[in-house]
């Protein structure tokens, strides 16, 4: 497996480095890995690979416009509706998930998303590996590594059921609250 760039990276990139223009992140297909200076939950380790993601995802019927640069930048500054990593981190950090817009999308609201972006700027570090078909490597990584923040394909992970339950509880509370402006 050629994942050393993710499991033992030469360097990790901060939000500031990723979000500056021109960005250091290449606009190509690949796999990215997330490390955290302070873990988002007391049962998780600091400075360990906790999550991997891919860009683009596999789509049999159309071509994705996603690439490493777009996805990594979005995770650092987007919202929980478009980033499962942000959804997971916000839930672990105890931010309040809310329905927004028409009520179908869920985010942490303007203040919560800003809080999460700041937490990520302070704690989240990322690395990546260019990969033409990243979904194949993602499957291998999830099956072989301890990646507690990944849910998809990761039912074997010891943290999986707790994370799944935390996210389900956050969604249920959000459904009980009025739609946020």
Structural summary, described in words:
With 181 residues, the protein is of the alpha+beta class. Helices cover 39% and strands 14% of the residues. The strands form two sheets. Strands 2-1-5 form a three-stranded antiparallel β-sheet. It has a two-stranded antiparallel sheet with strand order 3-4. Helix 4 (84-92) crosses helix 7 (160-176). The model has no long low-confidence stretch (mean pLDDT 94).
Stretches with pLDDT under 50, minimum 5 residues: none
Average predicted confidence as pLDDT: 94
Mind summarizing the main beta sheet?
3 strands, antiparallel
Order of helices and strands: HHEEHHEEHEHH
- The number of E-state strands comes to 5
Instruction: For the record, give the distance between the C-alpha atoms at the N and C termini, rounded to a whole number.
Output: 46 Å
If strands are numbered along the chain, what order do they take across the biggest sheet? 2-1-5
- Strand proportion, as a percent range, falls in 5-15%
Protein name: GIY-YIG catalytic domain-containing protein
Pfam family, one: GIY_YIG_2
Organism: Streptomyces endocoffeicus
InterPro entries: GIY_YIG_cat (IPR049311)
């Amino acid at each position: 497996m050629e994942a050393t760039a993710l499991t033992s990276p030469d360097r990790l990139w901060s939000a500031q480095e990723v979000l500056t223009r021109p960005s250091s992140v290449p606009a190509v297909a690949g796999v990215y890995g997330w490390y955290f200076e302070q873990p988002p939950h007391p049962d998780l380790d600091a400075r360990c690979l906790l999550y991997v993601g891919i860009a683009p995802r596999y789509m049999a019927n159309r071509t994705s416009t996603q690439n490493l640069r777009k996805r990594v930048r979005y995770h650092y500054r987007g919202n929980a509706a478009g980033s499962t990593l942000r959804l997971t981190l916000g839930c672990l950090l105890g931010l309040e998930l809310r329905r927004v817009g028409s009520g179908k999308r869920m985010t942490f609201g303007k203040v919560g998303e800003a809080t999460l972006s700041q937490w990520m700027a302070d704690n989240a570090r990322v690395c990546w590996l260019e990969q033409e078909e990243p979904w194949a490597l993602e499957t291998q990584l999830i099956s072989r590594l301890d990646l507690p923040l990944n849910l998809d394909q990761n039912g074997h992970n010891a943290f999986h059921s707790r994370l799944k339950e935390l996210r389900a509880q956050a969604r249920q509370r959000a459904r009980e609250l009025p739609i946020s402006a």
